[in-house]
Amino acid sequence: MRRPAPSGQPDLFTATWRGRRVCGADEAGRGPLAGPVIAAAVILDPGRPIDGLRDSKQLAPPRRAELEALIRDRALAWAIGAADVEEIDRLNILQASLLAIRRAIEALDPPAEAALVDGDRLPVLHIEARAVIGGDALEPAISAASILAKQHRDRLMADLDRIHPGYGFAEHAGYPTPRHLERLRALGPCAAHRRSFAPVRQALAAGRGR
What we know:
By secondary structure, this protein is of the alpha/beta class. The chain folds into two domains: about 15-155, 2-Layer Sandwich (Nucleotidyltransferase, domain 5); about 165-205. Helices cover about 40% and strands about 15% of the residues. The protein has eight helices and five strands. It has helices at about 60-75, 85-90, 95-105, 135-140, 140-165, 170, 180-185, 200-205, and strands at about 20-30, 35-45, 75-85, 115-120, 130. The protein has a five-stranded mixed sheet. Helix 1 (about 60-75) crosses helix 5 and helix 2 (about 85-90) packs across helix 3 (about 95-105). The longest helix is centred in the last third of the chain and has 24 residues, at about 140-165.
């Protein structure tokens, strides 16, 4: 496995990419039973490095919040993309995730000239791109994107908790925790739940639902 580049310095795959605007992109929310899937794309500014970038899942919430503010302030460009619950159910979660990533990359201003995308799949893009397995731990720009995506989605799930009380969305962000599954069985799915996911389908089949 390649060693990660120093924080804030893009570790590009090919010399031909050097000097180009290269974004990192990642998503948050493939596994939950509820809520949208959110993606972020970030073009880091080599002149304004950010120390401590890493996979968002490895960061404590206070540190994630600090880094989010730094990324928004220091990045050359950043953008958020999303795919909603209806799109997830219609397309499947993989395709919806790729759609959210594409939307984030296409929203960058200035635009990216190449992209590094976390995972082993790429969305359809009009720029050169590479998929990077484990990229959120290897590529600083992808790490930055993972932080923005998670922070943005966590806030959205807190909003959904107020709209649909009783499920604990602010606590578990829609993931299938024991408490969420218990509440899903007791209350049935709400409008924020993904009907294509098995536990939600089972609750609907049991005659539950709001």
